[in-house]
Amino acid sequence: MSHPLNTPIGRFGVETFEGTGDHSIASMPTHGLVNPLTGLPSAAALAMLLDHVGGLANHLRRGDDEWTVSTELSLELIPEAADLITTDDAGVLARARPVAAKGATALAVCEFSHRDTVIGTGSVRSFYITGAQFTEWPENEEHHTRKAGLAAMMAVAPDGAAALRQDADPVINNMLGVVHGGVAATGLELVASAAVNEGRTDAPLRTGSLRVNFLRRLVAGGECRYSATALRVGRSTGVADAQAVGADGQLALTARFTAYR
C-alpha cells in the first residue's frame, strides 16, 4: 500500500505491504540519498522506516481508545549500509514483529534487507496513550508534491557544521500534530554523522548505531533544531551525542550515535 504524499511516510516513499495481526512489512526507496550537511551517502532515512514498521507492529496491538507514541528507537547497521542502499534503486525492505506481551508499553524488533543482504536490525518501544486528539492531513496542492532529497523531504536547512534547523511543515507532522518520530530520529542521525566527520579528510565514518530517547513532543518552527557534538573521534570509530530542541527551546529528543570506518 502506498501512502499519500501529504503524510510523513508518504513523503519518504514508504510502502506498507502487511500490517495485520501483529507483524508488519514495509519498504522505502533510498537511492541517491545524501546527508545535506556532508554530501555523503546516508542511511539516516532508515530511522524513519524503522519508526514506521516497528511502531506499526506495536500499534496493531492497541486496545479500544488507545494510540501509540514512540518512546525509544534503536538502529543497528553494518558500516557498508549507506553505500549499499544509495547506489541502486532496489530500496530497503523492513520486517517487524512484537517481542513478548503488550503491557503499558510494547517492544517490536525489525530486520532490514537490501536485495538479498541483511544490512541491520532495529527496535521500537511504544507507549499506549488514551484520549488522543487528532489533526487533519494538510490538503493544499503544495502538500501533495513529491520532494527530492532529505533536506526537502524533512523541511530542514543547515544551521552550522553539525546542526539543522527544523522548519514548520504540516506534512512532516504525525496525526497528533507534532513532528513524526521517524523524521526527528532521521534528523538526529544526520547531525551526529556530520559531527563525527567534521574536518575529516580520510575515509568517512559510517553509521553503526543510533539510540534515540523521545522525551517530549517536538514542535517544528521557532527554535526547533537538531544538533550534535562529537564525544570521541578516532581513526576507525567515532561517538557523538545529538539532541532535538523544539520550537519553544525545550529539549525533546536525545540520541547516542556510533560510527565506524
Automatic annotation (TrEMBL):
SUPFAM superfamilies assigned: Thioesterase/thiol ester dehydrase-isomerase
Keywords, alphabetical: Hydrolase
A Pfam family that the UniProt record links to this protein: 4HBT
GO MF terms, alphabetically ordered: acyl-CoA hydrolase activity
Thioesterase domain: residues covered: 177-251
InterPro entries: HotDog_dom_sf (IPR029069), PAAI_dom (IPR003736), Thioestr_dom (IPR006683)
Domain of life: Bacteria
NCBIfam families linked: unchar_dom_1
Protein name as it appears in the record: Phenylacetic acid degradation protein
